[in-house]
Amino acid sequence: MTAQTLYIFDAYGTLFDVHSAVARHRALVGAEADRLSEIWRTKQLEYTWTRSLMGAHRDFWALTEDALDFAAARCGGLSSEARAKLLSAYETLDAFADVAPTLAALKARGARLAILSNGTPAMLDSAVRSAGLADLLEPSISVEEVGVFKTDFRVYERVGARFGVAPDAVSFQSSNRWDIAGAAKFGFRAVWINRSKAPDEYRDMPPAAVLDGLAGLLTL
Fold it and tell me: How many domains does the chain have?
């Protein structure tokens, strides 16, 4: 199996728009909607890193709830109705517009496609099904299999354990530069999906390619 026949995708921010939950309920959240969404995402990730370093694992859904509560406290609070609706929306985030057609084109070429994510199995199953991607993706790989978050190498090792391939046979896609750094260091062919045109980081662990969307995979 070559790098062009096994594609592994990060989920949140790469396939699914993490800000679509707040976007759906902007009126309910109020004037601080954008700020709340940014803080929610930032704290969610921060909690994964700090808990991995401490060896104090809590699953990604619990951290998503904790991060929302922190963001709400920083932004003037949320009603119980708004909190419930935001969490429900996070279970069914919108996929980016280029996701389904790109995955379909890769699958038509004979590629195998799967998710490797911090998300829990239930979160990933809900997101994949609600976005209509279940027929394109093989069962997701969750960090819950090892009880630690990315960028711990035990997470990336789950791909080889599932598919029986060496790291350099894997094309790994993520919108998160820190995830790309970890994947590149591990040995994956790491492709940074830089949708936001963010500046580069971790220059000692460069990506194999930088794309502004998933469709670029079809011409690599």
Answer: 2
From the candidates 10, 59, 94, 179, give the one annotated as an active-site residue: 10
Both tokens assigned to 138:
């093989």
Residues 69, 168 share a domain: no
Task: Give me the amino acid identity at 172.
Answer: F
In a domain, 180, yes or no: yes
Residues 6+ apart with CB under 8 A from 158: 116, 141, 145, 146
The 10s digit of each residue's pLDDT in 75-86 is 999 999 999 999
Residue 125 burial (CB < 10 Å; 0-12/13-18/19+)? Answer: middle
Q: Per the domain annotation, does 113 fall within a domain?
A: yes
The Cα–Cα gap between 167 and 169 comes to: 5
Predicted TM-score of the model (pTM): 0.95
Task: Check if 34 is active-site.
Answer: no
Q: pLDDT of 60-113, one tens digit each?
A: 999 999 999 999 999 999 999 999 999 999 999 999 999 999 999 999 999 999
For residues 99 and 33, membership in a common domain is answered with no
- The CATH number assigned to the domain holding 152 equals 3.40.50.1000
Burial class of residue 210 (count of CB atoms within 10 Å of its CB; 0-12, 13-18, 19+): middle
Please state at what angle helix 153-163 crosses helix 177-186, rounded to 10 degrees. Answer: 60
